[in-house]
Amino acid sequence: MTGPDPIDLLAVGDLLTDEERLIQSTVRRFADERIRPHIADWFERGVFPVRELAPELGALGLLGMHLDGYGCAGAGAVAYGAACLELEAADSGLRSFVSVQGSLAMRAIHAFGSEEQKQQWLPGMAAGELIGCFGLTEPDFGSDPAGMRTTARRKGRGGTSRPEGGGDWVLSGSKMWITNGSASDVAVVWAQTEQGVRGFLVPRGTRGFTATDVHGKLSLRASVTSELHFDEVVLPDDAVLPGVSGLRGPLSCLNEARYGILWGTVGAARDCYQAALDYSKSRVQFGRPIAGFQLTQEKLVEMALELEKAHLVAWRIGRLKEAGAARAAHVSFGKLNNVRSALEIARSARTVLGANGITTAYPVLRHANNLESVLTYEGTSEIHTLVLGEAITGTAAYR
């Protein structure tokens, strides 16, 4: 009998169906052939070729793959998770692009848009011909989106302000840390109105709408991150997402994206662990590979334990999601645990690689830097702790 796979000691991969494994292997092959040869250079230069890669990702069926109809694949939750794992094993920026496109922008239109809006945007977005972004976070309001200052007011065509019915909408404000922002053909923007928070579709080129890229990032460098500005942007009535009002809309989309994160971070962790394991077998010190030293083996064992636990957490939440039994607290559990585990694995792996670990020749510090952003975005570790605290005690402690 052969021993266990050192990268998957508990054979968690065997829990996937044949179709899920095929999807995972297809995405892994794409990442190996199309992303890995270039990602270190993209990260170092701070670029991500969105327009070049989006049609390729669309051709694989990865954009909005867990949605039904309109050119979307309609894949199950675990299949989508396995795809996110392989995307983030290449780079968090790649998985972020797919998450924002599918779980945020497309999901918002799919869940809350009119049939006309769905037909206008979703097929092109699924094919990667159109890019979307999701504007919720503001410079002063991240964890507390209810305090957003971006507003939309009704304006009669004759210039008279009116709270309800007829006329155009006028959108004013700004959004910050928006993935895909400047590359997008349409922005899904959430704003305060007299009827509560509403979602608006703002096409590229709309007068008064500008997107400015954020520079100087030390994390998620292979990703487009932007600030969106809305200077009295006039929108027609059919720009509003009619199917939802209040924060339930954007928060439900965020929960979808967080689900992708709890799988994706397993991929980043696996890539770091594998790099450390391979390096330890080839790096010779004191006359033998460092894999033969007890302290190195302890590090590798701890990484393997955390990796498999995170993988099992992701799989279990995926099956709950497919059964319709997953709750927001389950997703918070997964994001909080798996990002934390992935960060620890990345940091430990860097110590195995020594000075080589700080270069782009190896993926470890790139993953570690990216994971610092993943720890914070789409719900900080503090917020997810409080979500779980409320689930456990029945008492909210946000304020």
From TrEMBL:
Top-level lineage group: Bacteria
Every Acyl-CoA oxidase/dehydrogenase middle domain range: 133-233
Gene3D superfamilies named among the record's database cross-references: Acyl-CoA dehydrogenase/oxidase, N-terminal domain, Butyryl-CoA Dehydrogenase, subunit A, domain 2, Butyryl-CoA Dehydrogenase, subunit A, domain 3
GO BP annotations listed: fatty acid beta-oxidation using acyl-CoA dehydrogenase; fatty-acyl-CoA biosynthetic process
Cofactor names: FAD
InterPro entries named in the record: Acyl-CoA_Oxase/DH_mid-dom, Acyl-CoA_Oxase/DH_mid-dom_sf, AcylCo_DH-like_C, AcylCo_DH/oxidase_C, AcylCoA_DH/ox_N, AcylCoA_DH/ox_N_sf, AcylCoA_DH/oxidase_NM_dom_sf, Glutaryl-CoA_DH_mitochondrial
Domain Acyl-CoA dehydrogenase/oxidase C-terminal: 246-392
A single GO molecular function term of this UniProt record: glutaryl-CoA dehydrogenase activity
Region (Disordered) location: 144-166
PANTHER family in the record: GLUTARYL-COA DEHYDROGENASE, MITOCHONDRIAL (PTHR42807:SF1)
Similarity-based family: Belongs to the acyl-CoA dehydrogenase family.
Protein name: Glutaryl-CoA dehydrogenase
